[in-house]
């Protein structure tokens, strides 16, 4: 079954259907590998809601800093925030990118607008996800940590963290990860942010 036929089952919203038919027409006319397809997919999804996202940075961290070449991990990284922040469904991801990618994106995603209790449950959940999923979270955390550190070093104008709950959650997650350069890299960033928050830097 073609992607065009599959998408007809995704909903009856004519605006959404027309938008995705146009998108798939472009895909069918210009065949792309899954990496480029995922970049286009995520870009379109975030453009639809008018929100920026760091998915390209997470992808670059995985590829250049962590030397990850597994296509499914890289594709999942590009899509890692689409379930949380856009109207994307797991079915859409599975239909276009396959069951393994859909499962990996699902396992790294937290509930939309999650509350404090759900946040705790999420950080417990990710301690038991796949190795590929953990690698995506390591890159995700690295991207966020660098941004939050930048608030203290003057590299951006974001508000400075005044409490270290985020660092505590990450430290607990790191304990569930096998030793690797990626784990050490995130651990160092996490310690740096923690030190800024606690006034040790």
Structure commentary:
With 201 residues, this protein is an all-alpha fold. It has three domains: 1-31, no CATH class; 33-108, Hypothetical protein af1432 (Orthogonal Bundle), CATH 1.10.3210.10; 116-197, no CATH class. Helices cover 69% and strands 0% of the residues. The protein has helices at residues 3-7, 14-29, 34-49, 55-65, 71-78, 82-85, 90-97, 99-108, 116-125, 131-153, 165-174, 181-197. It is globular, with a radius of gyration of 18 Å. The chain starts with a helix and ends with a helix. The mean pLDDT is 90.
Number of strands: 0
What's the alpha carbon Rg, rounded to whole Å? 18 Å
**Mean pLDDT across all residues, rounded?**
90
The secondary-structure class comes to mainly alpha
Distance between the termini: 58 Å
* Percent of residues in beta strands: under 5%
Shape: globular
- Percent range of helical residues: 55-70%
Taken in chain order, the helices and strands follow as: HHHHHHHHHHHH
User: Uncertain regions: pLDDT < 50 for 5+ in a row?
Assistant: none
Count of DSSP helices?
Answer: 12
In total, the number of domains comes to 3
The biggest beta sheet reads:
none
